[in-house]
Amino acid sequence: MHTNIKKKFPLWSIQLQLMLLLVGSANAQSNSGILNLVPWPQEVRTKNQGRLYVDENFTIQLQNQVMSPRIKLATTKFLRRLAGRTGIFIDNGFAQLATTLPNAQMEINYDRQGRLELFEDESYTLEINSQKIRLEASTDIGIVRGIETLLQLLHREEDRFYFPSHQIEDAPRFPWRGLMIDVSRHFYPVQVLKRNLDAMAAFKMNVFHWHLTDDQGFRVDIHSRPKFRELASDGQYYTQEQIREVVAYASDLGIRVVPEIDIPGHATSWLVAYPEMASKDTIYTLERFAGIFDPTLNPIKPITYEILKDVIDELVPLFPDKYFHIGGDENEGKHWNENKEIQRFMKKNNIKDNHEMQAYFNLKVLKMLQNHNKIMMGWDEIMVPSLPKDVVIHSWRGIENMEKAAQSGYKTILSKGYYIDLMHSMQKHYQNDPMGDKHSVLSEEEKKNILGGEATMWSELVTPQTIDSRIWPRTAAIAERLWSAKEIDDYLNMRHRLEPNNQYLEELGITHIRNRDVILRNVTAYQDITSLITLSKVCEPLKAYTRNKGGIEYKSFSPFARFVDACNVDAIDAIGFNTAAKAYSKSKKDTDKQKLLQYLQLWQENNLRMQQLEVTNMLKPLLPLSANLAKTALLLQKQLQNNTISNKEKKDLQQLLQTLKMAVDDIELACLPGLEMLANQLKTN
Amino acid sequence: MHTNIKKKFPLWSIQLQLMLLLVGSANAQSNSGILNLVPWPQEVRTKNQGRLYVDENFTIQLQNQVMSPRIKLATTKFLRRLAGRTGIFIDNGFAQLATTLPNAQMEINYDRQGRLELFEDESYTLEINSQKIRLEASTDIGIVRGIETLLQLLHREEDRFYFPSHQIEDAPRFPWRGLMIDVSRHFYPVQVLKRNLDAMAAFKMNVFHWHLTDDQGFRVDIHSRPKFRELASDGQYYTQEQIREVVAYASDLGIRVVPEIDIPGHATSWLVAYPEMASKDTIYTLERFAGIFDPTLNPIKPITYEILKDVIDELVPLFPDKYFHIGGDENEGKHWNENKEIQRFMKKNNIKDNHEMQAYFNLKVLKMLQNHNKIMMGWDEIMVPSLPKDVVIHSWRGIENMEKAAQSGYKTILSKGYYIDLMHSMQKHYQNDPMGDKHSVLSEEEKKNILGGEATMWSELVTPQTIDSRIWPRTAAIAERLWSAKEIDDYLNMRHRLEPNNQYLEELGITHIRNRDVILRNVTAYQDITSLITLSKVCEPLKAYTRNKGGIEYKSFSPFARFVDACNVDAIDAIGFNTAAKAYSKSKKDTDKQKLLQYLQLWQENNLRMQQLEVTNMLKPLLPLSANLAKTALLLQKQLQNNTISNKEKKDLQQLLQTLKMAVDDIELACLPGLEMLANQLKTN
Q1: Residues of A in contact with B511 (CB under 8 A)
Q2: ipTM, 2 decimals?
Q3: pLDDT attached to residue B209
Q4: Which residues of B529-566 are buried (b: 16+ CB within 10 A; e: fewer)?
């Protein structure tokens, strides 16, 4: 239908005050000429100044003869969100067929029901003028995508709401735009998954990769092998009916669901249930720590494949998607090395190392999947020449591996650089393109093997209470990277467009904003949390693997209810302060100075407020941090105001900065670079 | 086991500053000598000053030979909540059998697994000294109850936590302590029900009454009659698997689940699916409004009973509970009157009125239930002499009906006075005793027929986003009324004990606190919500049926996302102000005057802040309210400070009060009584 969509960079360019941008004024949509669309569509044409106002008579008409369940649900949800966001009592709560409702404000038309498969058409055309909204697509999945664009276009004009006149043609750059959720390290109830599926759809993502098993738990009930449920899940597993429920829910949103069973490593939970599959004869218990562990399936025992077959035979009917993920990462083969029978087998069969042993194992699994007409996928490590070329290599170790896979003719998707559990900045993820930089080694033909990417929500340090704040808003930036044109890469611009849409995730039940306060109330035992909120705006959780060193600081059932769990990446005041400090260092402008002084004043006052709280267990480690920040702020304030500071004070300052550099209670002070920058410019009296 | 528990009123008596009480200081538990137990146990003995401190080595040992699934789950949840609330990294995440873990801090012992049936033993004994916690009960349900008491006993001593030395013997006053949730007017996903079941268990409630069908929707999938799902649910229904999931979840908490199908009235949804059951030949569509409607099952057609039998045959296996609720309320019989065949049938069979016609219908349904060995229950209206005496009469119309039922030998439970949807004060519900006042007409024998009561969450004006705030904390007061001794009736004392436990409902996922801010953010389009929070503390939703007049202001899909939906009963600043105004009127004390002046100042400043917001659709109606409150506050402030006011000002004040009396946007100004009280005392200059 839209075979020839031109990629066109939006004409506007912006210079935005970062503070305004990040703090966000009231519904930014009403205050700027920028369309707050994320991901940015392939083509946006502004037609005129026409506005289609929304009132209680707003109606949706479907021009098809029948309404697919997907459209029924999508239009109903759209009407509820529109009513909820505006407060308008829309009288007609459901879309209607053209025969029953002529002359609606919004008309929808599509050719056929979409199929949940790779390369399915997700394109749509959205045309708005002051009288009519027309949304057209080849498939009803395209309609689902277009509806999200429309909702993002909702503008406010004082107390009225309207859709601005525009013509949008859109289609994704990559066909595979996924989010992986690891439900093994922590388990997430169905509702948590559903609300995150809604949020994925809001940013046009189309693959939910469900990491179902790992060392810490086997999370799906296998009827023929009940011990997985009984012994290897702590009672936290999905029934098959729940799996079907989630898959159906995703399907309505045009999201494919790819299951993963991670084998032959990362398999402790399998061996807790069925130790007869083990490579080592020992007693297995569910892993409570994080890391890479030794328990490994035994690749030479028939029982291993019998149980695997039972698992796959039961899982396959639950997941209609063509792809099936077998994990395959981080098998260090220690227990294989220790097992004499495996060693004998390898020698006898001329298998020269563990990697080849794993390839042997994978081919057996591949056979099972092929019997079910499934295509196998796995992490980097599974790639060996003997694999058929339709296998998808899921790259987590680096873009070089990915390029190697693409050159070898494999389909591949990227997750390296999209590890949202590592608490890196949104900017870092946004600037990570699956096609690499401009100097790609790949031919045009090879590039076609790159299908897209997946954000990976590994869950060692994440609970149902905090998972939304770890996924959002950063995953929306990844969603844009995978949908929009490569040239759409202005981070600040995207951040600005994203902010209101990030806020409105709340209407889908996403808890990333509300649960910060829930945690802080608990931290203070229900005292006034204002001072902790202010402190949280300059604190970020430790990044990469520096939180939970060695994987043994936390057990899977440890509390994730402390200050660090209320903090998030891209701490807003830290960004504001660091940016102002940088600008001031360069230009010494008074506006920047005034901004800096405001922060420095804020942190001193905040400390006074915080020190008035009754000390609780979880509050205690934060008090010195706040106090030291306040002392630092006082000295820098003095310097900025008087342009002078004594030697003694300078020494104190250096000492304070050293102290602030040390992680406290698993957080780092994210405004430290700004503080240091200012301190380094000090003149000594 | 505990056959002779003495009822003993706690020895302490309190005089509490209402402000301190309601605003709540940090973890009240740490600041007062009162044990924050709700419901208050039958007997509490303070032994000594011993404290059992909680640290990472805290362990639970079960003295039984095996651990029931209920105990496994209850102890695991307890450990998670204890760790989460304290931030302590408890090393042993699960209770152990005595054989594997001697010398634990906490020992649990029970005689047998509890059965989910009326009059099952829920008693427990909890004994705490500085070395050991001992929790004993006849059944594991008693243990579940006792664990909640223990968690409520958690005290904080600066940054440490401990359980204080006490001996508690406890058992419920009434065996039926329920919460009804109407899932027809609005549908609630499984997770919403689960978290509310957890909250029920936190206050020792033991019956979840599931109102599954009504005019607005038929919410359970009946496989043999798929049109209920297809035509009468808007796609919002529970699968049978989900029903089982909720029933199992409740069972783990020691909560019975009683299903209700409301027939023969309140049955529009039935007739949308199967119009052949109707008393009138017309086209039926799902009801979108609220009220009493005419569509009624046809009591003389065989097909009616065929379909009813199919529904009951499928529901019965899902609900193991002995009781089955058939509704039966508000059948006005209009369509029966209009139906000539029904009229002929009545004449022929000597059925003299619609009430007798309904009795005929009920007896047929009764027969079906008896075939399944179920006991029927229904609302007041079902009571006729022909019913067997084990039927339970659910009284919603008044205590007189209930007494009549009890005198007639029927078992009965009370809901009149527990209609939490009507937004009456917690105090009103708390003081509503199923046994009535002291002058009960019932004999001791008749009193035994009163089994307890149920809070009823009718859901015309309640969504998944707001339901928690409508149920909690008021339902906890009803829970105490039904569990604790009749003499435990000091409202302020209960309110004080409840506050921290109400707050800690957040750890069960209850959204009553967090979602206020979510709604206010939406109302302001993500501007600063501070001023709206302050305003919400003196505003309450309209009470009884004054919101949604005639049932037609709202449709079931209208937005419930406005300011009124963020407001709640017992608005905290209104109570504080009204109380101070009353006290000041009597005694003219300066402390009360200062308190009043603080509020008056607050509302003026708040108005300035609020008028700075960009005006949104949902904000607009609140601005005059805030402005008028501020003007009123200014005049009263002047009067209080100067003890004088001009005639013109007095006239203005009267006019302002008249204006403030009028409902705005479905809210009422709850501090109005205090304002009026002060105004009435004005001297004119």
Answers
A1: 514
A2: 0.94
A3: 98
A4: bebbebbbbbbbbbeeeebbeebeebbbbbbbbbbbbb
